[in-house]
Amino acid sequence: xxxxxxxxxxxxYRKNCVKSFQDVTVxxxxxVKLAQSYxxxxxxxxxxxxxxxxxxxxxxxxxxxxxxxxKAEVDVIGAGNVKRMEDIKKILYTGCKKAVLxxxxxxxxxxxxxxxxxxxxxxxxxxxxxxxxxxxxxETIEKYVSGMILMNPHEIHxxxxxxxxxxxxxxxxxxxxxxxxxxxxxxxxxxxGNAMNDNVKEISSLKEVCEQNGVPVRSLKAAYTWDEFxxxxxxLVPVVVQDYKTNEVLMLAYMNEEAYKTTLRTGKMCYxxxxxxxxxxxxxxxxxxxxxxxxxxxxxxxxxxxxVSQVGAACHTGKYSCFFNEIAKKEYEESHNPxxxxxxxxxxxxxRKVNPKEGSYTNYLFDKGVxxxxxxxxxxxxxxxxxAKNPNPNEIKYEISDFLYHCMVLMAEKGVSWEDITxxxxxx
Length: 428
Fold this sequence. Notes:
Blueprint: E1 5-7, E2 9-13, E3 16-18, E4 26-28, H1 31-40, E5 45-50, H2 55-71, E6 75-79, H3 85-93, E7 98-102, H4 106-110, H5 112-119, E8 124-128, H6 132-136, H7 138-144, E9 147-150, H8 156-162, E10 167-170, H9 176-182, E11 188-192, H10 194-197, H11 203-212, E12 237-243, E13 249-255, H12 257-266, E14 270-273, E15 278-281, E16 290-297, E17 304-310, H13 338-354, H14 361-368, H15 370-388, H16 393-414, H17 418-426
Parallel strand pairs: 1-11, 2-5, 5-6, 6-7, 7-8, 8-9, 9-10, 10-11, 12-17
Antiparallel strand pairs: 2-3, 3-4, 12-13, 14-15, 16-17
């Protein structure tokens, strides 16, 4: 049986979130904020449908998808307005983990093989209303598609007769008991649509019910029970918290058994406040949640290391990390961290753009404009090729460094960050 997922939908229309395909009543003017609220409620994934009617609206919708992907703590599936392979490319380049082919359109059926071979089967889903379309295109679907979205729940039985692929069921309205019934179908991997949107606050409860009934759901599975930890005399275990991307230490806090179990259940860090003598879900009042990426125990089983995705600041002072009071320091090079070097150089380049410095070569490039930057980038790329043919390995090191510098100037000019680049690489 496939793991069951709770997948809210965002329907984008004229830069706003609307109620549904049929009802364009605006429910939110801030799609990113709405997406974050769904994540906070425990959504496993998000589906974003682009309902735009013009090319300009479509471009704006893609920008919104990109913003959602950058902020959402779950995978995002992009759908809508796919007419050719280029549209799939644009959706995936926003950061969406998967893109959807609408099989009510023959043109989408026809590009299935092409987009699958280009981007990978695992990134391609299809949506459909009538199971008959699956029967007609069964061979193509089985070969080039990883999953489906059934837009008509009345076709569940026919769908399962035709294909073994996992599929989400898009449902407009449904009671919680009926929602649980849908999960009993082996190939149903998730529920989406307004039925999920309207019940988003019940996700945690629904997951508990699923687990009680042996229905597999996405949740944190602990390798150790609370009894296996060594606690202090108050029954607490210290927790060291790190940023999962940079490994920067953010804070130190404590857990009791209840906080430990709440953290596992919600996927958000929960602690015990020794001063207030009560539980506190990090971010519950500030909005600065910590989403769990991993939990580990030390060799003595008396300390927990949590790697998290931090929203906003970890410290109550507004600082990103609580550890900002420098006590003593020896000078040392941080060149062992390549990403830090990239970030530091890029920060200088960005500063030159905002605060020009007389005589700066970087400012010379910005002043001359993008054509000059591109010309230099092309020259440096050619010099890499020449250097690679020479026996001295140092030459290619120098030329690649020059190339990367000019790349960063172009990035600053076009508003692209290193995080954008690394995210894109990670998605490939």
